[in-house]
């Protein structure tokens, strides 16, 4: 079973090929073939369970928990589950238009982790809260950084549940604090190459 967390354009489905990128969580309970996504690049990360043996174009790759792995969405791929069921986080992006990245970050109560524009953070395990960050001043019209200090946050922290997603912002970046691990997904727009 696959649960979509975010996609662009919004409310698109894989069947119609209308999205340029998608972030989802899938439960894998049996060995078998993976779906192909022509024209896409995938980053898969095991977020629950111990090990997934992923075969991509005939080459076997043992994937351990919290270690992202990138491969072509067009590649013939299949999975074996030597240690039992797993849950994975998938970032799929249209090649040449977007590039997706996944980083696993250990969070702390002492230092909040900001989530910036173009990012999505997902609580994988532990306890965490999210609060609106400080208001960040934009560059002045002259292209120089503004000198005024950021305003303090006035929002109350909200408790996150496992697999809750937080969407980033450049003007008031949400900040996550607590104990545990988050996946920080960055989706970058790829500029077309000029001749």
Describe what is shown at a glance.
The protein is mainly β and 195 residues long. It has 2 domains: 2-96, Sandwich (Jelly Rolls); 102-189, Jelly Rolls, CATH 2.60.120. The protein has strands at 2-8, 21-28, 32-33, 40-48, 51-56, 59-64, 69-72, 77-80, 86-94, 98-107, 113-114, 119-131, 158-160, 165-167, 175-189.
3D architecture notes:
With 195 residues, this protein is mainly beta. The chain folds into 2 domains: 2-96, Jelly Rolls (Sandwich); 102-189, Jelly Rolls, CATH 2.60.120. 0% of the residues lie in helices and 52% in strands. It is built from no helices and 15 strands. It has strands spanning 2-8, 21-28, 32-33, 40-48, 51-56, 59-64, 69-72, 77-80, 86-94, 98-107, 113-114, 119-131, 158-160, 165-167, 175-189. Strands 10, 11, 12, 13, 14 and 15 form a 6-stranded antiparallel beta sheet that branches. A 5-stranded antiparallel beta sheet has the order 1-2-9-4-7, with no helix packed on it. A hairpin with a 2-residue loop joins strand 5 (51-56) and strand 6. The N and C termini lie far apart (43 Å). Residues 138-159 are annotated as: Disordered. This is HutD family protein. Pfam families: HutD (PF05962).
